[in-house]
Amino acid sequence: MSADLEHIRQVMREADCLYNEAEVEAAIARVGAQISDVLAESNPVVFCVMNGGLIFAGKLLTHLQFPLEASYLHATRYRNQTSGGDLFWKAKPEVSFIDRDVLIIDDILDEGHTLSAIVDFCTHAGARAVHTAVLIDKDHDRKASAGLKADFCGLSCVDRYVFGYGMDYKGYWRNANGIFAVKGL
User: Fold this and answer.
1) Torsion angle in degrees (nearest 10) through CA of 35, 110, 107, 40
2) % of residues, the chain, pLDDT over 70
């Protein structure tokens, strides 16, 4: 076993559980009901932001019992690091959303640079309205713009480095079945 893999395992052993699986699943169901109230009649295009939004989007989509088109996009600032850099597009949306409502599903609203850039992209490309849903909103005052919030939010968390339910620690633990905070970060 490599030293790096042992470090990855140690991070999980020492992590603080902020939300357990039942709490996260209840939040996802609540967000699904909120989205359904707003978008059920709008024939939206729903984009999962890869890779972080994968688990949240997959679980959330099962709570949206109305017609929608689902696709993905991949924009990142992290590239398996623990701090963000410039926005990098790995895959832009391929489904047309001109004159349609768009729902962007992502894992976390931290500073919000990535999510803001994606919303701007969709708006300038002709979306009628762009809505955002995040599993976690990190509580701090470093948002990309004052008052930046997602339209739909599952849970809030303290200003620590978190992983699980799609969020990763150095590329690992997206599969963790809760929301965990790295010890000391």
Assistant:
1) 10
2) 92
